[in-house]
Amino acid sequence: MFNSVGEAFSYIESFTNFEKKPFPLRFFRLDRMHRLLEIFGHPEDSFRSYHIAGSKGKGSTATFLASILKEAGFRTGLYTSPHLVSYKERITLAGEEIDDELFLEKISLLRDRLSGLRPEDFPGGEYPTTFELLTCLGFLVFRQLGCEVAVLETGMGGRLDATNVVRPLASILTPIELEHTEYLGETIEKIAGEKAGIIKANTPVIVSPQVPEALTVFQQVAQSQNSPLYYLPAYLKSFAAHTHIEGTELYVEWSKELLPSLPPLRIILRLLGEVQAENATLAALTAVLTIPGIPLAVVKRGLESAYVPGRFQRIQDSPPVYVDGSHTPLSARRLLHSFLEIHPQPHTLILGIVSGKRYEEIARILCPAFKRVLVTTPGTFKPSDPQALAECCIRYNPSTRLIRDPQEALKEALASLPDSDASILITGSFYLAGEILKSCVPLATGMHIG
Question: Rounded distance, CA 272 to CA 313, Å?
């Protein structure tokens, strides 16, 4: 057995890890994942599941839904990505950490079984990838823990994602935008088509607000699969969200025609931001449509208790410091809107973006709103070019500096604030969020700079 959980996950990382480097399209295939699961007795068949794909909001929506299911009395697994500090964050019991011993046991099992196999024992003549092994590990852990249901977030895409091996209770689609275009396609329609690959025959499809091009694709695929599609905006009579320093106020009044007996939903979420209110509403609708008779009070308790780090998370109160993993233009725009609700005159932006993202658009959205910008390196998990980002940012905010070390950038930002009310926002990448949170203890609400 491995000596530590870190050593165990390093073993999994020793396989081809597409989260760290580019990869050829030939690696996209599900038959290798099916073979891997066959070796371990198909653990994915031991529990029911909900499957979530989309460009933004997948992890938060999954967390909200898992929290509702837990509150409803189901033993619930939650599989998300990426992680911020530890791979253990990806595989939890509705957000609750799982003991190291179980990870050590199951990763040792993976190693023992794989040690007797050759690449040619798998379709395509390649060993499973890191993400495929992590997905299999999640299924093994959930089976061992007796999970009745699991909420599964796709890694990238959907159609050929390693998680797309289940027959879910429902397929859930969050907002679509241009992302991973080198793999998923260069148009909204093509990307939506890949995400729609999680839609299964005769299985409910629950869809968040979408641009028309994406919605049309989802409707066409659902119809071809004889799967009923439930579009969130059609179920809302009114929706209101307001972000303040203590949380996000959410008020939903449901359509009297479609949900005549469901009373309004009024809660305060722990997660900040209007986008989290939308994610919570999508999770609530999913629960109402797929769990007959679930009390709204159970839904409310689940939403109110849900929490996931690195999403517009306040890590220090005075001066206020926030960290967020937004890394697309749409998410940056939504983040800025909610940030300005709390801090109308923001002071310092710390920005780090990995290569391959639309950093010019993100810089154009965020940089003019702040008095100054500090560009930094979003960790070493993925390649980045802070110099190019700094040269871009200075066009939108002349008060831009490059400080390559994220901790040094934060120290500089804190040291030069004019007063204790001046705010700092750290964003651009989940990997940057992870670098910052490594210095924060513990990985939970109320985290403070260590």
Answer: 7
Strand partners, 400: 373
In contact, 198 and 69? CB cutoff 8 Å: no
With 60 as the cut, is the pLDDT of residue 446 above it? no
Residue 405: count other Cβ atoms within 10 Å of its Cβ.
12
Phi, psi angle pair for 322, to nearest 5°: -125, 150
**CB-CB contact of 15 with 134 (8 Å):** no
pTM of this prediction? 0.93
Residue 312 CA to residue 321 CA, distance in Å, equals 10
Beta-sheet strands, E only, within 80-224: 91-92, 149-153, 170-173, 205-207
Q: Residue written as tokens 């309004």?
A: 264
Architecture of domain 313-449: Alpha-Beta Complex (3.90)
**Spatial distance between the Cα atoms of 101 and 366, rounded to a whole number of angstroms:** 43
Q: What is the pLDDT of residues 236-286, one digit of tens each?
A: 999 999 999 889 999 999 999 999 999 999 999 999 999 999 999 999 999
Average pLDDT over residues 304-315: 94
Buried/exposed 143-176: b ≥16 CB within 10 Å, e otherwise: bebebebbbbbbbbbbbbbbbbbbebbbbbbbbb
Of 80, 133, 64, 81, residue with least CA distance to 103:
133
User: Which residue, among 300, 278, 304, 305, has the nearest Cα to 288 in the 3D structure?
Assistant: 300
Domain boundaries, the chain: 5-305, 313-449
How confident is the model over 73-90, as pLDDT tens digits?
A: 999 999 999 999 999 999
Q: For residue 125, how many other CB atoms are within 10 A of its CB?
A: 10
- Homologous superfamily, domain 5-305: Mur-like, catalytic domain (3.40.1190.10)
Using DSSP's 3-state secondary structure scheme, residue 440 falls into strand
pLDDT tens for 188-229 read 999 999 999 999 999 999 999 999 999 999 999 999 999 999
